[in-house]
Amino acid sequence: MTSRVSPAAAFAAAFIALCSLLGSEALAQDASPPPAAPSEPVLNSAPRPYNSLRPRRVRPRPAATAAATTTAVAAARPTPAPAAPTAAPAVVPPPVQTAHAPLPGPELEAFVDGVVRRAMSRDHIAGATISVVQNGQVVLKKGYGFANLGQRRPVDPDKTLFRVASISKTFTWIALMNEIEAGRMRLDGPVNVYLPQPLQVKDQGKKTPVRLKDLMTHTAGFEDRSLGQLFERDPNRVRPLNDYLRQERPNRVREPGLLPSYSNYGAALAGAALVNVTGKPFEQLVSEEIILPAGMSHTTFREARPWNDRLPAPMNEALAAELSDGFSWTPMGWKTQPREFMGQVAPAASASSTAGDMARYMTLLLNGGTIDGKTVFSPKTALAFRTPMYRPAPEAAGWNAGFQDMALPGSRRGYGHGGATLYFHSNLVIVPDLGLGIFVSVNTDSGANLPASLPSTIIEHFYAPAPAVPADSAISYDQARAYEGDYLTTRRAYGGLEGFTNRIVGRAMVRATPEGRLAITDGGVSTLFNGTDKPGVFKAVDSALTLVFDANGDRPSRFYAARGWSTYERVGFFRSAGLLGWTAVIAGLACIGTILGVMFRNRREARQTPVQARASQMQTMQAVLWLISAGCMGVFSVKAADQTNVFFGWPSGWLLSGSACALVASVLSLLTLGVLPMVWRGGRRVDSWSSGRKVAFTFTALLFVFLGVLLGAWGYLVPWGR
Questions:
Q1: pLDDT, position 485
Q2: Which residue(s) pair with 407 in the sheet?
Q3: Closest by CA position to 354, among listed 279, 409, 299, 283
Q4: Looking at residues 261-266, what average pLDDT do you find?
């Protein structure tokens, strides 16, 4: 703590940059039941050997002439395979609707150029890559800026690989759905059936097993840990997938299927299940089943690192030479950052690709699983990616078999996925009723806003112009006030020092405006939402996002994040950031007063009994320890402004030292309470403290104890915890 602010406030101010990465009991379900799951084979008691199972059925695609392929690829309906006598009829996704004007290429390029260049200048983005496809055609494919500053290598949309991070998960879900359709896995099957014993999910007091479906919808009930293990800077620290999953097992904090809470661990676990069932390394499996058939020659899940016998083969040299660097913006300009490795969670995050390859990937998704006459996944799987598999409430964002269900301008809905590493930010958006796919990625940590906003900006500009005047809220100020409060994300660690930091940066403040709107402040960014005629449902003033509150009795108890990543639960007064902050500030002033009293108290005021003398020494020691703890937190907060220090250097020595000092101070504070009766009893009048000093001592002792209790509840007093 510096300048007399609380540890919580100082830490939150500097640590807020992590919010974009650290991107949740029964609750109200959809008014109508979710779509029925397709007919599936009976679940095996254990996975059978891969080579003993029947091969996957490949649905033939009718031949098309070369001249017809270009114009009909987006609207063609793939021919389903003949159904087995006992199988349900094949499900074919509806053809792409073409009742819309196609995007004009030159006008689109001019518009995107303006948006991208403004964002690059405003947000100090070193390089960006973009592709747009529609109706089977590449409408725009372009690179901006640089991939390497030393060589001044420009971004080439067909050659320069960007880290696409969590977009990697969509490949994992395709491979998983293929195994489900082949009958080797089952959507409702417990994931433990498909995992080797060392990786199986423990009960941890929970009654319901985690299913594959729970992993795809991010409702498995895991806490979310990332600091010190999700990213690696030293390639020698990268672990095999199975080792990582066994050593970094998160706690189960709720029953599965209840609340959305994004989980990288869950996606990596699904990848391990695929590896166990197929008998193939994950990188080989996804390459053979998706990347190569789709003709994505510049896409790989392998990483640019030295050879290691314990790990999958690294990225080949030709692709590694085209990999973009990652950058941070500093007062001295762009800084090239060390390469980040995520091979230990490859199914969740390790893919790298180009805008050109992602254009082919989007065409594959829009074509219902086929491209260039090759079938990568079935029409039934294609329909699953367009259909909500899980929504926590009827109007809330959900998950479509692992893809995000997205609200888009013009009351449209799409699907896709975002992704972020420490330095790369990406977004993939598919709009079926427009036959449209948009991919954008940047290579600078400060550039998250461009990928998040560009797809909606394009759709809004060409298909759904926003009204000049925002709509009014349908509720009054008094009604909006019922939703006010502090809310804490479920996507966090629930214990240890990481849990403490997550409780600081994972908070959202909800406040009502006089116009009856809600102002939601999350990660330092505020968004306005209008109330609607549906209780608990709010629409963003300047976007298509929807926020849904869930009431527990008469008072809203939680809301579901507008992008579906997590749930935010209301925080009571005892765990509020304001209470901790003000308590820390007042305790800091009391510490300073205690130390100054020792230094400048006059001789008359120094008269005291032996017990009072020892109590005074003990309280002075506590004051020094609390100030040291605050100082350590202040240094950690400053260093946390560079997220590299946090993720690669966790747990910080400064944070551990601050926690240890606070723990000792808290224990001494409790001991001080035991001597309060003897302090007040004193000795002869001339040898005892004055009443004023006894009151001050008692107040300080109680204040220190209260601060210790609060910090204990927040998880700060565990220097041995990760």
A1: 92
A2: 413
A3: 299
A4: 96
Computed over every residue of the chain, the mean pLDDT equals 85
- Give residue 681's Cα distance to chain centre: 57
Determine how β-strand 127-134 pairs with β-strand 137-148: antiparallel
Per the structure block, which two tokens stand in for 82?
A: 């003949």
Tally of CB atoms within 10 A around 516: 18
Q: What angle do CA 564, 570, 575 make, to 5 degrees?
A: 130
Query: What are the backbone angles phi and psi of residue 599, rounded to the nearest 5°?
Result: -80, -35
Domain edges within the chain: 7-18+578-714, 104-461, 477-574
Average pLDDT over residues 427-439: 97
Kindly list the distances between the CA atom of residue 494 and the CA atoms of 207, 221, 462, 712, in Å, as whole numbers in the listed order. 20, 12, 44, 13
Write out 230-276 in H/E/C secondary structure: CCECCHHHCCCHHHHHHHCCCCECCCCCCCCCCCHHHHHHHHHHHHH
Q: Which residue has the tokens 């040898």?
A: 687
**Can you say whether residue 3 is alpha, beta or left, with left for phi > 0 and alpha for psi between -120 and 50 degrees?**
left
The one-character DSSP state at 323 is B
Cα distances (angstroms) measured from residue 92 to each of 479, 548, 679: 46, 32, 82
Q: Which of 83-97, 319-333, 498-512 is predicted least confidently?
A: 83-97
pLDDT at 534: 92
Sheet arrangement for strand 399-400 = 153-154, 137-148, 127-134, 436-442, 425-431, 412-420, 403-408, 399-400
Query: What CATH superfamily classification does 104-461 receive?
Result: DD-peptidase/beta-lactamase superfamily (3.40.710.10)
In this prediction the pTM is 0.83
Helix or strand run (H / E) with residue 472: none
Is the predicted pLDDT of residue 88 greater than 70, yes or no?
A: no
Helix and strand counts by DSSP (H, E) for the chain: 20, 22
Q: How far apart are CA 239 and CA 243, in angstroms?
A: 6
Residues pairing with 527 in the sheet: 520
Classify burial at 720, counting beta carbons within 10 Å of its beta carbon; exposed 0-12, middle 13-18, buried 19 or more.
exposed
Q: Are 210 and 191 in contact (CB under 8 A)?
A: yes
Please report which confidence band the pLDDT of residue 467 belongs to, taking 50, 70 and 90 as the band edges.
Answer: confident
Contacts of 425 (CB under 8 A, 6+ apart): 20, 165, 418, 419, 441, 442, 445, 447, 448, 450, 451, 452
Lowest mean per-residue pLDDT among 79-93, 212-226, 427-441: 79-93
Q: DSSP secondary structure string, 157-204?
A: TTT-BEE-GGGHHHHHHHHHHHHHHTTSS-TTSBGGGGS-GGGPPP-T
